[in-house]
């Protein structure tokens, strides 16, 4: 019987979870690597995905399965979300690691599920796919290993001498709204990818263990032992008409999510309003370090906490990307992002030039016009690839804005989808990408690419890799 790749049915969730437990209990290895067995990993992943797939808002069609002789032998899960990409919202889907029954591996089952999932994302107009897995496997799907490993190491003794201006305490039940507001203030501006989190996401994965759901908390192998510290400041209240002013209440001006490891105290997430709050949080972490000599901030250097740690004598290092993969799946969904983000960069630099990016997914074109004595007008359009079964789409969008518009030259770049993903995320300098043998450029494209796509600090918070 032929293998069928399809969506799961609602009554197959239990079978999918059985497959998940068996697959993770027999982790797949690279070729010629010794096989192993890890029952605790199988139980832990079943507990995690039981919650995810059992949520009322999770659709069975987001589970893409391979059926062979009436048996489910492989599957991959899809988690559609909304994320901030350089400050603009875009659609993103996280993929669970593809799982295959040990008896059916190396038969193309996992690859078929992955291709089916990526096709689903394209059909449903989801701009970007992201997953966490092995580099020796997922690179074959044109995915870019995009997230470096950031570490800022600060001796606890140096952190103890930091200025303690803000009040720092443990997270309380009433602090959730303040922590969420702090995240929403900073995450879209300071991270390349930042999830627009739901309340359930906060409760499940960012708060102390006694606030989490019991079926995860009772799992003995669950490594979710994070603690949360919050920094507060007085928030003055104005008096309403005819009523006395209320007493000052405290607002959340910063927070950190941290955990203890065998060797150090690790900070896996944190945002704060200014350097003074960052110093106070680092000093509070030093009080909790115990016999651990170092505080390690697993955060990009552009954020306030690593910057404060560097001023106190910390050391920063960046390791190569390990395990987090990203790729563009539906290019038209980035048209508005292209106009707003890339267009604003060209406008800020005063570059009145058109920019066209051509890939195997289609063509994005940006038209920049400056009215004589008037404002900039920026529009973007998308053209389907010439090999598309639907044919090439007609050109749309404002290519000209009247006789008073100033003339400008067009710049064209032809590049593969993987290079476009690297440009968008800022993982590689535009100059390096322009030197690739499979990238074709017209005159003046190198400088314009460097302005349109600056190098950034691609980062996806650990808790947001899946949920």
Report helical residue fraction. 25-40%
Note the quaternary state here.
single chain
Largest sheet: 9 strands, mixed
Give the radius of gyration.
Answer: 25 Å
Q: What is the CATH-assigned architecture of the largest domain?
A: 3-Layer(aba) Sandwich
Q: Poorly predicted ranges (pLDDT <50, ≥5 residues)?
A: 209-224, 244-248, 389-407
Could you give the distance between the termini? Answer: 36 Å
Compute the number of structural domains: 3
Number of strands: 21
Q: What is the CATH superfamily label of the largest domain? A: Gcn5-related N-acetyltransferase (GNAT)
Average pLDDT taken over every residue? 82
Shape by Cα distribution: globular
CATH topology of the largest domain: Aminopeptidase
Put simply, the count of helices is 14
Class by alpha and beta content:
alpha+beta
Strand content: 25-35%
């Amino acid at each position: 019987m032929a293998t069928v790749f399809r969506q799961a049915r609602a009554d197959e969730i239990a079978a999918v979870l059985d497959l998940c437990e068996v697959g993770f209990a027999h982790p797949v290895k690279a070729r010629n690597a010794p096989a192993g067995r890890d029952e605790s990993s199988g139980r832990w992943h079943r507990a995690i995905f039981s919650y995810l797939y059992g949520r009322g808002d999770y659709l069975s069609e987001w589970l893409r399965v391979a059926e062979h002789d009436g048996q489910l032998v492989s599957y991959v899960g899809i988690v559609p979300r909304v994320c901030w990409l350089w400050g603009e919202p875009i659609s993103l889907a996280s993929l669970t690691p593809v799982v295959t029954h040990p008896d059916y591996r190396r038969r193309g089952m996992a690859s078929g599920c992955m291709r089916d999932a990526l096709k689903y994302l394209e059909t449903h107009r989801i701009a970007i796919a992201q997953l966490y897995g092995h580099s020796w496997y997922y690179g074959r799907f044109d995915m870019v290993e995009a997230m470096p490993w950031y570490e800022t190491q600060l001796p606890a003794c140096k952190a103890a001498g930091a200025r303690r201006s803000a009040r720092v305490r443990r997270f309380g039940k009433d602090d959730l709204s303040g922590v969420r507001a702090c995240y929403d203030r900073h995450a879209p501006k300071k991270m390349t990818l930042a999830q627009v989190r739901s309340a359930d996401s906060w409760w499940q994965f960012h708060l102390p263990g006694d606030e989490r759901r019991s079926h995860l908390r009772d799992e003995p192998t669950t490594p979710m032992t994070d603690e949360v510290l919050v920094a507060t400041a007085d928030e003055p209240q104005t008096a309403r008409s005819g009523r006395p002013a209320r007493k000052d209440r405290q607002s959340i001006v910063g927070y950190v999510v941290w955990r203890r490891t065998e060797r150090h105290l690790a900070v896996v997430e944190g945002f704060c309003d200014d350097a003074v709050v960052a110093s106070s949080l680092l000093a509070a972490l030093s009080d909790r370090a115990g016999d651990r000599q170092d505080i390690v901030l697993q955060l990009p250097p552009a954020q306030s906490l690593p910057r404060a740690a560097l001023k106190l004598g910390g050391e920063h290092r960046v390791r190569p990307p390990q395990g987090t993969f990203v790729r563009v799946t539906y290019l038209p969904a980035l048209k508005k992002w292209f106009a707003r983000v890339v267009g604003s960069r060209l406008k800020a630099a005063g570059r009145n030039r058109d920019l066209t990016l051509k890939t195997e997914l289609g063509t994005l074109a940006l038209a920049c016009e400056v009215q004589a004595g008037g404002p900039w007008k920026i529009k973007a359009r998308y053209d389907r690839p010439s090999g598309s079964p639907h044919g090439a789409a007609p050109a749309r969008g404002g290519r000209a804005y009247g006789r008073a518009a100033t003339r400008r030259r067009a710049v064209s770049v032809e590049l593969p989808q993987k290079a476009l993903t690297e440009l968008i995320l800022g993982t590689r300098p535009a100059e390096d990408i322009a030197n690739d043998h499979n990238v074709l450029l017209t005159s003046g494209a190198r400088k314009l690419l460097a302005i349109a796509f600056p190098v950034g600090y691609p980062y996806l918070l650990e808790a947001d890799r899946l949920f």
